[in-house]
């Protein structure tokens, strides 16, 4: 590929067409990139970023970012500028085939230049990004405060107005209309000013089931409400309200918001409104046939700050361990902070638990699995002792939470709902052709809103040799399928068996499976096709689900997708049903 510099000028002499390399060393950045220094005629220094994995016939491909800074600070800041340059490149996810952009972008004092290319991709600013340069009037409003973690981030306060320069993934390039500064912002912290997303009561891309979960979290009271887009009727909306219920607790009721042919909305034909805002104001004053007057918007989930995707293998010094949360056979779990800013969970692994190379290979696969029901893997420290950095979940592991006063108060419908969330996470793992190998309540984490996420997927395999061979190792026999115990055959179907055992943990509030039996007892009984009896207070219908998971032949066991749908519909009617219009 032929690459040439875009035309540009500096204050002072122009950049030399054939620059001489400076006396400063090349820097190897990760495995794919090299950064070199080039001296211009004016004595200034540029940084050239090269992708050494995308070679032409004889030479590596110049990615094409140049950062001009004065020669006086080049020694001190060379490596720092190089890393920032790589950060800038990776965050924009520029197309390696070559991009063109004649504009210069000022990011915290460093000017970056792109390379022109004759490739077919040259007309695109980024492979999957959207630019707003042709839409000057598009403004976004900050929905939360954001404190910068990196120099290239743009901090803002809730309510600040911003112009988005480029959308790409979880981090967008934006300009503050308050300070005039530019930098990167987390996309889930802002909403377009000219859309319903700025309304506290509007929740985009929310399913009916997720709506019910959200309205039922602690902090919401009867009269809490939200409006969402209808799943079944595109372009229509639904109003969901928390209402007082019977002995089983509060319930959520749904009302279809219908559209008028000439514009406008109504729930009851006797009352029509030109906007949803007018509809909300009216029913906030009077219930007028609804189950409750609209008391307050549903409390939103606290947004999770996206992890900078260029920060994967991180220095140990960037982590601060604050509070020990637990300890196991292979290490400890701590609550801590990354760069003294972002709260995280830090799992330490004892030296010798696994080979760093094998761990990194598996961790790279685990990193690709991203779903709202999986605990997100943020970063790793690969020098022993190995550290794993994940998102922090306030209520800790499900096993411990079930034994707390709050956990013991959970009613059956909530326990089944939490089980459905676990099945949803495992259905994603199933879809990705991955295996967990150690599914149990101890490896499920719980948020402050009682949202459940699957954790530690994949770790069992990379420590398997130590897991089984160490004297006294606590192999989770009571959760393991017979074919995995006897032949070491793990599959997603052996995970389904484990899920059936997890269901017994749920309905018994954390009781150890097969009570009164040792591991050898369990193995002998399973060889005789023994199955745990139905736990006390467990409905027969739920025990039937457990027995489906414990079918002897793996191929006869249900899929996690089936289990997710079955548990989601365990207590609720069909998705299409709404309350009668008032």
Automatic annotation (TrEMBL):
Start and end residues of each SH2 domain: 201-298
Organism name: Amphiprion percula
Domain SH3: 135-195
Name of this chain's protein: Tyrosine-protein kinase
Cell location: Membrane
Polar residues bias locations: 1-11
Ranges for domain Protein kinase: 319-571
Stored InterPro entries: Kinase-like_dom_sf, Non-receptor_tyrosine_kinases, Prot_kinase_dom, Protein_kinase_ATP_BS, Ser-Thr/Tyr_kinase_cat_dom, SH2, SH2_dom_sf, SH3-like_dom_sf
EC code(s) of this entry: 2.7.10.2
Keywords annotated in UniProt: ATP-binding, Kinase, Lipoprotein, Myristate, Nucleotide-binding, Phosphoprotein, SH2 domain, SH3 domain, Transferase, Tyrosine-protein kinase
Enzyme class at the top of the EC tree: transferase
Pfam families listed in its UniProt record: PK_Tyr_Ser-Thr, SH2, SH3_1
Lineage start: Eukaryota, Metazoa, Chordata, Craniata, Vertebrata
Positions of region (Disordered): 1-22
Membrane-topology annotation of the record: Lipid-anchor
């Amino acid at each position: 590929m032929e690459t040439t510099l875009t035309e540009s000028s500096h204050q002072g002499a122009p950049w030399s067409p054939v620059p001489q390399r400076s006396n400063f060393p090349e820097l190897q950045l990760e495995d794919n990139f090299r950064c070199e220094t080039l001296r211009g005629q004016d004595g200034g220094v540029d940084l050239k970023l090269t992708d050494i994995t995308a070679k032409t016939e004889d030479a590596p491909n110049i990615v094409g970012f140049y950062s001009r800074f004065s020669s006086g600070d080049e020694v001190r800041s060379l490596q720092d500028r190089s890393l920032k340059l790589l950060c800038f490149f990776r965050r924009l996810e520029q197309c390696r085939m070559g991009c063109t952009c004649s504009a210069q972008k000022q990011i915290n004092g460093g000017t970056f230049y792109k390379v022109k290319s004759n490739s077919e991709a040259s007309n695109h600013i980024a492979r999957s990004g959207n630019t707003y340069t042709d839409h000057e009037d598009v403004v976004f409003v900050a929905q939360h405060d954001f404190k910068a973690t990196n120099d290239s981030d743009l901090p803002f306060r809730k309510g600040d107005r911003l112009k988005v320069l480029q959308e790409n993934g979880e981090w967008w390039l934006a300009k503050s209309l308050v300070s005039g500064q530019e930098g990167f912002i987390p996309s889930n912290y802002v909403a377009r000013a000219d859309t319903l997303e700025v309304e506290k009561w509007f929740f985009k891309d929310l399913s009916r089931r997720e709506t019910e979960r959200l309205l039922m979290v602690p902090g919401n009271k009867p009269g809490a409400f939200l409006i969402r887009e209808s799943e079944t009727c595109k372009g229509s909306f639904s109003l969901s309200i928390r209402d007082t219920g019977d002995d089983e607790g509060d319930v959520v009721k749904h009302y279809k918001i219908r559209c008028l042919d000439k514009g406008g909305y109504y729930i009851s034909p006797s009352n029509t409104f030109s906007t949803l805002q007018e509809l909300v104001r009216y029913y906030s004053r009077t219930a007028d046939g609804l189950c409750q007057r609209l008391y307050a918007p549903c409390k939103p989930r606290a947004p999770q700050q996206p992890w900078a995707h260029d920060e994967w293998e991180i220095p140990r010094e960037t982590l601060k361990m604050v509070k020990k949360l637990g300890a196991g056979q292979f290490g400890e779990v701590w609550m801590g902070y990354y760069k003294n800013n972002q709260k995280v969970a830090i799992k330490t692994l004892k030296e010798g638990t696994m080979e760093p190379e094998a761990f990194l290979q598996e961790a790279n696969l685990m990193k690709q699995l991203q779903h709202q029901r999986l605990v997100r893997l943020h970063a790793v420290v690969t020098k022993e002792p190995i550290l794993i950095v994940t998102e922090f979940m306030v209520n800790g592991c499900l096993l411990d939470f079930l034994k707390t006063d709050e956990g013991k108060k959970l009613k059956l419908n909530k326990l089944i709902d939490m089980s459905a969330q676990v099945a949803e996470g495992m259905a994603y793992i199933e879809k990705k052709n991955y295996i967990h190998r150690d599914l149990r309540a101890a490896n499920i984490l719980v948020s402050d809103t009682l949202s459940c996420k699957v954790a530690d997927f994949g770790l069992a395999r990379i420590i398997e040799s130590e897991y089984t061979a160490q004297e006294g190792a606590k192999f989770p026999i009571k959760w393991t399928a017979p074919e995995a115990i006897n032949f070491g055959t793990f599959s997603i179907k052996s995970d389904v068996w484990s899920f059936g055992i997890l269901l017994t943990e749920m309905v018994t509030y954390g009781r150890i499976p097969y009570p009164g039996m040792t591991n050898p007892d369990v193995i002998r009984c399973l060889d005789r096709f023994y199955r745990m009896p139905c736990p006390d207070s467990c409905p027969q219908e739920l025990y039937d689900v457990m027995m489906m998971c414990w079918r002897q032949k793996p191929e006869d066991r249900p899929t996690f997708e089936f289990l997710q749908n079955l548990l989601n519909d365990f207590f609720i009617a069909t998705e299409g049903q709404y309350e009668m219009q008032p």
